Amino acid sequence: MPELYDRVRPGYPDGLFTDLVAVTGMDDRSSVLEVGCGTGQATRSLAALGCVVTAIEPGVDMAELARRRLASFRTVDVETSTFEEWDDRGRRFDVLVAASSWHWVDPSISWQRAHDVLRPGGWMALLGHVVVRRPDEPEVYGETADLHARFCPGNPDWGHPPLEEDVRSTDEGWGQVDDPGGLFGPAIVRWYPTVQWFDGNGFADHLRSLSPYRKLDRDVRDPLLDAVAERIRTRMGDRASRHYLSVLRVGQRAE
Q1: How far apart are CA 211 and CA 215, in angstroms?
Q2: What's the CATH architecture for 2-133+162-195+244-252?
Q3: Cβ distance 209 to 62 under 8 Å?
């Protein structure tokens, strides 16, 4: 699964990191803590900035793949731990980054711990992706809704992605996570349109990496994804898009 995840999940656009640098002032002297680095997709971009990066990843296999992917960067250290149980050994950081991972951290601990491990004046940055649709383009779930209903009827996780313009209107706060209260200042929010293209088999592999599909029984998941791949081949010219708005939410540590 780590190799599949690394291959099919979207990365983060260069412009996001350009804005992260501009907002926080981070440079090659900055220390960065990344919470939940996965296979190191965002970590590579952080390391390319020259920062010293300590990356935490609770999944043993994910962390091992991240170490292999990041072996050429001497300023990156990957530690296997949850954020809640991680031993900071008194280390303090200039920037904390969580890329599509903050919602996995216990909210009763997450924000206070983030505040504690950041230096005065430090910055908190949440990166993520929102799947969106455009009204003038075919969208894979819309094209395969009958297959989802046939193989797994009544699943509450199925549904059309929101329209891009509706997502852009939600540009305040820290998104779909608990609010940090007075621990951090107001979030600066920036959006970045991105798109992935897949053939039928590639799109099925992408879905295989997503939690609504991973939690299905294999005897339901595999026939469903085989049917989705076949539908993309026969009705969509074996070419399907996945549109996202990548998002950066960044705010400064309150004193």
Answers
A1: 6
A2: 3-Layer(aba) Sandwich (3.40)
A3: no
Alpha-carbon distance values, 138 to 10, 89, 193 (Å): 20, 51, 17
- Taking CA atoms, 91 is separated from 54, 164, 200, 224, in Å, by 10, 40, 46, 47
Domain boundaries, the chain: 2-133+162-195+244-252
pTM tops 0.85: yes
Instruction: Check residue 37 and report its DSSP letter.
Output: -
Picking from 153, 129, 139, 130, the residue whose alpha carbon sits closest to that of residue 216 is 153
Q: In angstroms, what CA-CA distances link 47 with 51, 68, 116, 167?
A: 6, 14, 23, 30
For 166-191, the pLDDT digits (tens) are 888 877 789 878 889 899 999 999 99
The β-bridge relationship of strands 52-56 and 76-79 is parallel
Tokens matching residue 21 = 């640098």
- Read off the tokens for 89: 């050994």
Sign of the dihedral through C-alpha 208, 209, 214, 218 = positive
Task: Show the CA angle centred on residue 36, arms to residues 188 and 141, nearest 5°.
Answer: 75
Cα–Cα dist 237/173, whole Å: 40
Question: Cα–chain-centroid distance for residue 215?
Answer: 19
